[in-house]
Amino acid sequence: MFKEIENRKKFTVFAIEEYRHRKGLDGKTAIGLLEKSGLLQYIEDFFDVLHSYGTEYLIADFDDYLKNRKRNDYRLNETEKAAWEKIISG
Predict the structure, then answer these.
(1) Given phi > 0 = left and psi -120 to 50 = alpha, else beta, which region is 38?
(2) Count of other CB atoms within 10 angstroms of residue 53
(3) By the 8 A CB rule, do 65 and 34 touch?
(4) What is the pLDDT of residues 67-79, one digit of tens each?
(5) Quick check: 2 pLDDT over 80?
(6) Within 10 A of 59 (CB to CB), how many other CB atoms are there?
(7) Do residues 61 and 50 make contact, with C-beta atoms less than 8 angstroms apart?
(8) Please, which residues have CB within 8 angstroms of residue 21's CB and are 6 or more apart in sequence?
(9) Helix ranges restricted to H, the chain
(10) How many CB atoms within 10 Å of residue 11?
(11) pTM, whole model, 2 decimals?
(12) What is the DSSP letter of 69?
């Protein structure tokens, strides 16, 4: 059980850091955006599937997740809104 929890945490950190790096986001903006949009919960809920994806597919999946949601449904600060717009505009 402990090993599974540890693996989930490691994967979540990897996914956040990889996405942050690829999108040119600072840590605070990335965490805020991913947490407020529900993407962190998505990573947790679908760990069993997501951890088997390659990095490119994982990044594309996260982009699709954000593109299929309405930014105004979330309480984002201005920096997070700008990051979201940058991500969905491609």
Answers:
(1) left
(2) 14
(3) no
(4) 998 888 889 999 9
(5) no
(6) 17
(7) yes
(8) none
(9) 2-23, 27-37, 39-45, 47-50, 55-67, 78-88
(10) 16
(11) 0.88
(12) S
CA angle, corner 54, sides to 51 and 58, nearest 5?
A: 70
Nearest to 46 by CA among 35, 61, 32, 31: 61
Query: Which residue do the tokens 């809104």 mark?
Result: 81
Per-residue pLDDT tens digits for 21-69: 999 999 999 999 999 999 999 999 999 999 999 999 999 999 999 999 8
Q: What is the largest CA-CA distance in the chain?
A: 40
- Six token digits for residue 29: 């903006």
Nearest-CA neighbor of 26 among 83, 90, 66, 89? 83
Report the distance separating Cα 54 and Cα 68, nearest Å: 21
Which of 18, 8, 5 lies closest to 62, judged by CA? 18
Q: How many C-alpha atoms does 76 have within 13 Å on its Cβ side?
A: 24
